[in-house]
Fold:
Amino acid sequence: MSTTFTFEERFATWVYNTVLTWGIDEKSAYWVKAAVLSIALVFVVGILDWLSRNVLLSAVKKYSKKVNQPILNQLVEKKTFKFLAHLIPLTFAFVSLPIVLKGFESFVNPVETFIALIMLLAVNFFLQSVLKVVKVVLMNVEALKDKPVASFVQVGSIVVTIIAILIAITIFNRPVNTKLINSIRSNECGIIVSFQGYAFWFSRFY
Structure:
């Protein structure tokens, strides 16, 4: 992380010094620097998002062909994991804000809050998509046709929504920090590991 910040700081300093050579006063130079760095950040985040989506979807697709589990196959077909891929560029944007908006610290917290909410939304979309796929797959399992699968999945969807709302309220009510973001990402990793085990168990019905 320190290497990333060092590079960003050097780039920010170079942009600022370059702007000063244009004959712009220091106050205006800060605004121009922030604008240039913001545009550069959006560009980099866009590239990272494209790369992370393609790499993650490709990796999951290869793994799906290897294990051939019904639920995982459906998730790959629906491209559900694209929601998780968004977390990578969003995290990069989050940690880059203090450098990009240096000199405009009052803007940092609102933008951090916005990014944290987008990350939370991506996680929520992922989980909701997983639940929909699980419902479709399990309702076609002969041994579970007399079970209230749809009701269980609906309850799970409501629980996920409630948790997402509570986390959103927490984000609004206190300053956003990297610990909160790391917590969201860690919980998501735990969900993926657990899901792999459940997918293997459900695949035995086929």
About this structure: The mean pLDDT is 78. Residues 120 and 184 are 7 Å apart (CA to CA). The longest helix spans residues 26-67. The radius of gyration is 21 Å.
